[in-house]
Design a protein that fits this description.
Layout lengths: L2 E5 L7 H16 L14 E6 L5 E2 L5 E2 L3 E2 L8 E4 L7 H7 L4 H12 L3 E5 L2 H7 L7 E2 L6 H7 L4 E2 L5 E4 L2 E4 L4 H13 L2 H10 L25 H11 L8 H8 L3 H12 L3 H19 L4 H8 L4 H12 L3 H8 L3
Parallel strand pairs: 1-2, 1-6, 2-5, 6-7, 7-11, 8-9
Antiparallel strand pairs: 3-4, 10-11
Helix pairs in contact: 1-6, 1-7, 6-7, 8-11, 11-12
């Protein structure tokens, strides 16, 4: 029977532990005798473990019991690593000195050939352990800039929902760990069981992008650069008419070179490219909250060519405007 060890600690979401268990339980239910011939009976076992073997306090304050202590040498087919649900991952890593035994255990399990699976901020822990050097990984889109800055040697695929390389699986956040758990069902059992489990639990097994959910607006004040924040506020008021880099630099009383450098440091992109991102975000909100057509959206955000806008929208979000409206618009 495949054994998955679920490693958790204080500040993790309770659902980060419960969700994979529920999915493995559903897979076991579908694999009981009387099902499709050739299926294995009860293919999954799991153990919930903490660093000291004691219950952990979840991010919502719940006390979560565990089955034992985290070990780098205990046998397992896969390790499911929960991610801390914290506003500042860098601060979490700096203040939680007790994480080194966890990082060491992750390294030892990886050396044993155990599959490692994590989501969201858990990717930071794998990177801290040195396990993502030169490898593909993903994390929640809101943490992408901080992750790339901290671990420039990791091939961050910030638009992807799940990445997999060298026995390490990473996914985005919250509901993406439904897909991550199903990927483990597929790898440790079979693809048919994963598909049947997804159908039973009404999970879209074929989601592959998180880019439709991403928003640049969370960075309006999050980057700590007052100059860039003032520039962003000025830009959002001029999405329709646009502006030149010269106008923006004059407005902020800095050189164009300084302006470009500060935007790249704070946001990872120059001002005019960020303007594109803001325009796409405004179009997304129009599609979410109104019945505006593509032509109306173009008029409101300053695009004259609907065809080029459609191409740009798909490059940014991974979906067409009509598909985006279908997923997120008013019914």
């Amino acid at each position: 029977m495949p054994l998955v060890r679920i490693w958790t600690f204080d500040a993790a979401l309770a659902s980060g532990v419960a969700t994979p268990i529920d999915i493995f339980l559903a897979a076991n239910y579908l694999a009981t005798p009387g099902g499709e011939p050739g299926r294995r009976t009860r293919p999954f076992e799991w153990q919930v473990e903490s660093l000291d073997g004691k219950p952990v306090r979840t991010a919502s304050g719940q006390l979560l019991p565990v089955d034992g202590r985290i070990s780098g040498t205990a046998g397992a087919d896969a390790i499911w690593l929960t991610g801390p649900f914290v506003p500042d991952v860098a601060r979490f890593l700096a203040t939680r000195r007790d994480l080194e035994p966890l990082l060491s255990a992750l390294r030892r399990q990886h050396e044993r050939g155990t599959l490692l699976a994590t989501y969201c901020t858990g990717s930071f822990l794998l990177a801290e352990a040195g396990l993502l050097h030169g490898k593909a990984a993903t994390t929640h889109w809101s943490h992408a800039r901080a992750f790339q800055s901290r671990y420039p040697d990791v091939q961050l695929k910030h638009a992807e929902l799940i990445t997999e390389q060298a026995g390490i699986l990473c996914s985005a956040a919250v509901t993406s760990y439904q897909n991550l758990a199903l990927r483990l069902v597929e790898k440790l059992a079979n693809a048919k069981l994963a598909l049947d489990t997804a159908k039973l639990m009404l999970i879209d097994l074929h989601r592959d992008l998180q880019s439709p959910y991403a928003s640049p607006f969370h960075e309006l004040c999050d980057h700590g650069d007052d100059l860039v924040a003032r520039g962003q506020r000025w830009m959002t008021k001029r999405l329709k008419e646009g502006f030149s880099i010269t106008q923006l630099s004059q407005q902020l009383a800095v050189s164009e070179r300084t302006l470009n450098r500060r935007f790249k440091q704070a946001l990872g992109e120059p001002p005019l490219k960020h303007l594109q991102s803001l325009r796409i975000e405004m179009a997304k909100r129009l599609f979410e909250t109104t019945r505006a057509t593509v032509e109306v959206a173009c008029d409101r955000i300053g695009y004259s060519d609907p065809a080029s806008f459609r191409d740009l929208f798909k490059r940014h979000t991974g979906v067409t405007p009509s598909e985006y409206r279908r997923r997120f618009g008013r019914r």
